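dude i think i finally got it to work??
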Amino acid sequence: MQAFVKIKNGSYRNQEVRDEVFPLIKQFQLGSKGGYITVDGTGRFGKDKIRVTVASPTDYELVEASEAPVIAPQEDDEAVISRIAERFEILDDMTKAVLNGDIRAMIVAGPPGVGKSYGIESQLEKANLFDQISGQRVKSEMIKGTASALGMYKALYKYSDENSVIVFDDCDSILLDEVCLNLLKGALDSGKKRRISWLADSHSLRNEGIPDQFDFKGGVIFITNLKFDQMKSQKTRDHLDAIQSRCHYLDLTLDTMRDKILRIKQIARTGMLFEDYDFDQIQQDEIIDFMTENQNKLREVSLRMAIKIAQLRKSFPFKWSALASTTCMKSI
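look at this
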């Protein structure tokens, strides 16, 4: 008879596991990095055998089968590809709505290297090109990397007019800075007037002629690799809950290795992934098959990795797989 276990407090690959029931494979063991319990994670993580980190045997308990969650049948590949494509179509539609001023703010969450930024950046380029042709001031900008609180205040001021949009791409440090989070909450407030203030003395603001408060009327898109509900700090989670309540939150649901591989296949089908390499279908399939077979050995499974391997396939047609094995895989 299948045994089930309720994990009270644990984690799997930096994702919190709390009060969740799994089919038990093997009870508590000590490894080189601490204690763990082996369970069937198909329902939550898409893998049939995972090690969930727990501090001690008291962090879990055996439960009756009646408490186990009902696991839905696994989607077939075509269903997953269709779901992923639909999510990215929604992303395009929502981006247009923010640019049109119909939606104030959106958060886009998903793992790195799956094309979160590409569609948004394309929509911004189209909008900015229209502004440039018509002789108007460009109304949108994508900011990548680290941003300080003062830098965020300046950026919000610069794009504070109606129908202006600012995109923070991979600026996850903002989500860990209390001042930045408070500025964001002000910019995304649901009231008619969204007033943002900088009450600390700043020579920089005075020199640039930026007031210490202004009304923000623009839109904000935040692209992140983080899952808001999996942040460990309760204080940070409280802030993020406040941000999320003010935004449309789009999770691209690319949580498993299988999802990432199928996302790569989905983009390859559009002809966009390898369009610069003049590959026939057999050559494209070779790259996808290589990634599928070596997915657990690659340094990352992403569109960027597919392009790296495509570059090797183009430059070294007879030994590309050996070179990819050397340069794109983890050392064992």
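The two ends are 37 Å apart (CA to CA).
im so relieved honestly
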